[in-house]
Design brief:
With about 280 residues, the protein is mainly α. It has a domain of about 180 residues. The chain is built from 12 helices and 4 strands. A hairpin with a 4-residue loop joins strand 1 and strand 2. The termini are far apart.
Length: about 280
């Protein structure tokens, strides 16, 4: 490539003429395209300006699967997620009615077969039914379940407070988790009152007074609520299936007891107080 004597422009030859023609064509293309874009709707401009997924560093599903069928839009491909590598199957228990092993329920009935929990203000019963179906499913729904377990305790406490059955007193300087304190204190106060415990047991259709006290005393409800918090904030990453079953067992007892406190007309509220005042411990 050569310049003229004052080096202000190329000498004309086949190469420089080709470069000039190419630049002229490029300039015309830019001018024409720019004019078209001025009159084009903004959505269409964005679509035209968007580079293909491969230029954005996105994973190309068609290439990875050798699928020759092109996808029309990114939206139609949807968000791709890694499928679970293994499925969690609920432990089996012997069902005396069916005579066969069936999945153990996440929230077991701690009363007789006819006992049902009854909450009027909030949808705990719907949540119980949905969690039980998910847990019994052959597909693992641990993430959904672990994020929902804390709500069982929260909604039960909320129902007691809204029904003005219980008034929880928070001492000055109390710096523990309040939900854990309310759940744990309610259970310990109920277990400490013999007459109340007998009425609750009768409502559940049970007579095993000593076993009932031993079972609920063996559960660390504050620790259970801490595990529920982990499940809510970190999903199943921080909980094993054994943790989920442990929380389910604790929730079974807690919901049965709170349902009795709400609905059992044999409870002597005059002796407990209206509302029953419980100081968090």
């Amino acid at each position: 490539m050569q310049f003229n004597s004052d080096r202000t422009r190329f000498q004309e030859n086949a190469l420089t003429n080709s470069i000039r023609d190419t630049l002229e064509k490029l300039n015309k293309f830019i001018q024409t395209k720019g004019s078209d874009l001025k009159t084009m709707p903004r959505e269409e401009q964005a679509k035209q300006a968007k580079p293909p997924p491969s230029q954005l560093g996105l994973f190309d599903q068609n290439e990875a699967t050798n699928d020759p069928t092109p996808k029309d839009t990114d939206a139609e491909q949807g968000l791709r997620v890694e499928q679970p590598k293994s499925e969690t199957t609920p432990p089996k228990v012997e069902d005396p009615l069916k005579g066969a092993n069936v999945p153990s329920p996440l929230i077991a009935n701690k009363g007789t077969k006819s006992f049902v929990v009854n909450f009027n203000i909030n949808p705990i019963t719907n949540l119980l039914d949905q969690l039980s179906k998910l847990y019994a499913s052959k597909t693992s729904y641990d993430e959904v379940i672990t994020c929902s377990l804390r709500a069982l305790f929260e909604l039960a406490i909320y129902e007691l407070e809204m029904a003005e059955k219980i008034n929880f007193i928070v001492p000055n300087g109390y710096n523990e988790d309040r939900l854990g304190g309310k759940v744990s204190s309610l259970i310990s106060h109920t277990n400490a009152k013999g007459d109340l415990k007998r009425v609750v047991l009768a409502g559940l259709g049970r007579t095993d007074y000593q076993q009932f006290g031993n079972e609920i005393s063996a559960i660390d409800f504050k620790l259970i609520i801490k595990k529920c918090h982990l499940g809510t904030h970190k999903s199943s990453q921080s909980l094993f299936d054994s943790d989920i079953r442990e929380i389910g067992n604790a929730a079974s007892w807690f919901l049965a007891i709170t349902s009795e406190l709400l609905n059992n007309t044999s409870i002597d509220w005059n002796s407990l107080g209206q509302p029953w005042e419980i100081t968090l411990s």
